[in-house]
Amino acid sequence: MELRHLEYFVAVAEERHFTRAAHRLMVSQSGLSASVRALERELGAPLFVRSTRRVELTGEGRALLVEAHRALASVRAGKEAVAAVQGLLRGTLVVGTEQCITGVHVPGLLARFRSEHPEVEVRLRQAGSAALVDDVAEGRLDLAFVALSGPAPDGVRLVPLAREPMVLLCHPDHPLAGTAGIGWADLGGEVFVDFHQDWGARGLNDRAFAAARTARRVALEVNDVHSLIELVGHGLGIAVVPLPVARKTQAAALRTVPLTGAEGHYWEVSAALPDDRRTGPAARELLSYLPSTPPGGTCQAEGPDPLASPALPASRSTPTIPATPTIPAPRTAPSVAAPAHPG
């Protein structure tokens, strides 16, 4: 089985289109089609169901895609290992991240890496934590910054980076805006804005409300931090979010309420990597740039340690910002007294 055939197959599988895959690979469409047909003949099975608009993977194609990703990742790691022995670092580093990650400034980290290792091509993908961890496990990503809501799958290890509390975010005119704190079980009758189920924060929320034996209605699902803040700002629902989201400047006009009884429900950020055997030299080098963690892997939070003092600081006046058509001028109410979090 030729490596080139696997590379072409993966491109078509990911693009779901032969023309787009050919452009991506910078090859002719006829040559790409011939390569895929040769692979199908070698395997004795169709890999795609073709139509005039797009192609879909067959069952055999889906099975091959998983192994093809792993094979290509192993080949890439092998090339990088040989280069490392020669004192070089080159190849490709594919990194994933969820939005609003704390404990690491991803743009600054990648900029430093690229400046010190210009021969390495750096690629970045943004998605929910569950999808990112799957990509690490299957060899599509070398490393990912995630907030995983459950245990890592086999073949993936987690390096803890930070831990933050969850807080309630609501419109200034919401009845809960002036409260000093509220429990998870007291939020059952509210309408929620939340992230898609692929996100680590969503998984954490679902588990926390289940532990509180409280059903809730998620009316609006988003895949974007800024969309969540905007929807809450228009009074369309409340949200339970990690503290760094509430610290963002876009949320300055909203109200933040501490959650009581939140022990054990923390937003934990980690670097997800393949097991030691499959971690490439470029990923190891990037990992060396990260802040060290104490023995035992205890997460370190930015700002006040939520483990030592889970309650938020005393309420203060919210900074005045220009009024908008949807959010009234801010007034004194409980808020997060912490510097804006980067990102």
From TrEMBL:
It comes from the Bacteria. SUPFAM superfamilies: Periplasmic binding protein-like II (SSF53850), Winged helix' DNA-binding domain (SSF46785). Residues 290-343 are annotated as: Disordered. GO terms for cellular component: cytosol. Residues 1-58 form the HTH lysR-type domain. Residues 306-334 have a biased composition (Low complexity). Keywords: DNA-binding, Transcription, Transcription regulation. Gene3D superfamilies: 3.40.190.290, Winged helix-like DNA-binding domain superfamily/Winged helix DNA-binding domain (1.10.10.10). PROSITE patterns: HTH_LYSR. GO terms for molecular function: DNA binding; DNA-binding transcription factor activity. The keyword Transcription regulation applies. Belongs to the LysR transcriptional regulatory family. PANTHER family: BLR3139 PROTEIN, HTH-TYPE TRANSCRIPTIONAL REGULATOR YBHD. This is LysR family transcriptional regulator. It comes from Streptomyces liangshanensis.
